[in-house]
């Protein structure tokens, strides 16, 4: 509409700040309205959950367990050993899925893993093997494990082994390959397989020897906390964390009894991989959320994960049960000539970072991330402020400097999501829709609302049963 006196375009903007900013930049007279979508959940379920006498105490317990959990790097071992992962078995990101429903990047990573393990000698042979059910597929989360993007983990891959010094719980993650054409993005070319073989034959054994020789285990939670003070948010920006990890590991690495050329290659690889820390941060978050994995009456989310086709969540009050919906496609910035049509729907276990309260929830701690995923610095600040409305607590160990060192918004509350109409914000990479493409960009995405509506209905049913 137009202001009748001045003739200046006048706009009423509801809900999304980025639109208001863009219109103001074009000279429009913008009037912001604090509006949010009405709850989509059943009002009876909302009432049952809101009146559940167990909820407040259960949520306090769940949050306390998350806050108390620590994370120490104690070993590096092959998945075959640490998980008892047998041959012809592959783990993947997200909720359960079969070959027929797998997206392009997940298919590409599964094919690449079969070639890497020697179960097939050609792409076509690997595809036939997978299509015939000759390889068992299971989610990483079912094995206390997390994997970024496709998350495919095979028996010969080396895993970071992390332990919670409070509960003794363990969590695992494979080693980060770097960016570009990598297995986790669905690429499976000769260069990808050569890198995986080098990681198996050189990187893994050197890291194992180094980690085992350290006088004290690396406190990964402390590194994650420090990253937020240095401009990382812990999901799509890991520069400071990766450099701190390199600093802590280097003295032990150089003392490993291995050829100097291998030692140099390991240090060069870590130093050149800005996302090296991500695969340590993810199991750190997994440890904390697993500590709250079984708390009857709690409405706190303990898992958010995607397999490239579906998005799934779990809650403390419903344990290992998955609630799923169609994965959305991220919106953001693209590499080279790639565009929106090239991007696959959301994929990866890395949303465990947002579930823990960092990543997209701490965009205010890393305003430079907008140059990688899109948006503006005000968007980053506003996103973190909004996430406080969806969470149960603030984590004093994970502080956001620009917000006066306020603790990160932690403990996504299914009931708060329903009441506000807002959804969690996730920073993520984007894999190519076609198997073998690799990374095409990075951006922002939200879960489908169906996940939270289904979880709320299940929690409400539990509340009614508990009386």
Count every helix, treating DSSP H or I runs of 4 or more residues as helices.
16
Tell me, rounded to a whole number, the average pLDDT.
93
pLDDT under 50 segments (min length 5)? 1-6
What gap, in angstroms, lies between the N and C termini? 53 Å
Domain count: 3
Cα-atom radius of gyration: 22 Å
Query: Quick one: biggest sheet?
Result: 5 strands, mixed
CATH class of the largest domain: Alpha Beta
Number of strands: 18
User: Helical residue percent?
Assistant: 25-40%
Lay out the secondary structure.
Elements: E1 10-14, H1 17-25, E2 29-33, H2 43-50, H3 55-68, E3 72-78, H4 79-82, E4 89-92, H5 104-117, H6 123-131, E5 136-139, E6 145-146, E7 158-163, E8 170-174, H7 190-213, E9 218-219, H8 220-229, H9 239-254, H10 260-271, H11 278-290, E10 301-307, E11 310-315, E12 323-326, E13 331-334, E14 347-348, H12 352-356, H13 370-373, H14 377-387, E15 391-400, E16 406-412, H15 414-420, E17 426-431, E18 439-445, H16 449-466
Parallel strand pairs: 1-2, 4-5, 6-8
Antiparallel strand pairs: 3-7, 3-9, 7-8, 10-11, 10-14, 11-12, 13-18, 15-16, 17-18
């Amino acid at each position: 509409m137009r202001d009748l006196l001045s003739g200046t375009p006048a706009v009423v903007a509801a809900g999304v700040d980025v639109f208001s900013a863009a219109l103001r930049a074009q000279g429009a007279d913008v009037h912001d309205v604090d509006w949010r979508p009405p709850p989509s959940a059943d009002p009876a379920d909302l009432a049952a959950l809101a009146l559940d006498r167990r909820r407040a105490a259960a949520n306090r317990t769940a949050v306390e367990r998350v806050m108390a959990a620590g994370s120490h790097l104690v070993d590096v071992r092959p998945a075959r050993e640490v998980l008892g992962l047998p041959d012809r078995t592959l783990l993947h990101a997200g909720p359960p899925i079969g070959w027929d429903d797998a997206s392009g990047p997940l298919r590409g990573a599964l094919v690449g893993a079969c070639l890497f393990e020697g179960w097939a000698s050609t792409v076509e042979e690997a595809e036939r093997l997978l299509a015939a059910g000759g390889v068992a597929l299971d989610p990483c989360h079912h094995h206390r494990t997390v994997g970024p993007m496709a998350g495919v983990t095979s028996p010969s891959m080396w895993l970071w082994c992390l332990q919670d010094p409070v509960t003794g719980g363990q969590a695992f993650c494979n080693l980060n390959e770097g960016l570009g054409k990598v297995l986790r993005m669905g690429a499976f070319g000769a260069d990808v397989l050569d890198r995986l073989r080098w990681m198996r034959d050189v990187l893994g054994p050197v890291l194992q020897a180094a980690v085992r020789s350290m006088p004290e285990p690396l406190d990964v939670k402390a590194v994650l906390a420090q990253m937020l003070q240095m401009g990382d948010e812990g999901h799509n920006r890991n520069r400071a964390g990766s450099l701190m990890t390199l600093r802590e590991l280097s003295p032990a690495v150089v003392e490993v009894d291995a050829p100097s050329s291998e030692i140099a290659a390991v240090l060069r690889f870590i130093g050149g991989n800005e996302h090296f820390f991500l695969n340590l941060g993810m199991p750190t978050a997994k440890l904390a959320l697993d500590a709250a994995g079984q708390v009857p009456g709690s409405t706190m989310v303990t898992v958010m994960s995607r397999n490239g086709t579906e998005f799934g969540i779990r809650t403390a009050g419903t344990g290992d049960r998955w609630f799923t919906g169609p994965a959305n496609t991220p919106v953001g910035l693209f590499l080279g000539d790639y565009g929106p049509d090239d991007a696959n729907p959301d994929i990866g276990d890395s949303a465990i970072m947002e579930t823990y309260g960092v990543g997209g929830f701490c965009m205010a701690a890393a305003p430079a991330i907008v140059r990688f995923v899109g948006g503006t610095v005000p968007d980053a600040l506003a996103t973190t402020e909004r996430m406080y409305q969806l969470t149960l607590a603030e984590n004093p160990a994970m502080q956001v400097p620009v917000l006066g060192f306020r603790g990160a918004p932690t403990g996504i509350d299914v009931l708060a999501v329903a009441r506000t109409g807002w959804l969690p914000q996730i920073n993520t990479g984007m894999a190519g829709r076609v198997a073998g493409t690799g990374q095409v960009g990075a951006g922002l995405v939200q879960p489908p609302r169906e996940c939270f509506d289904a979880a709320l209905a299940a929690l409400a049913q539990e509340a009614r049963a508990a009386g």
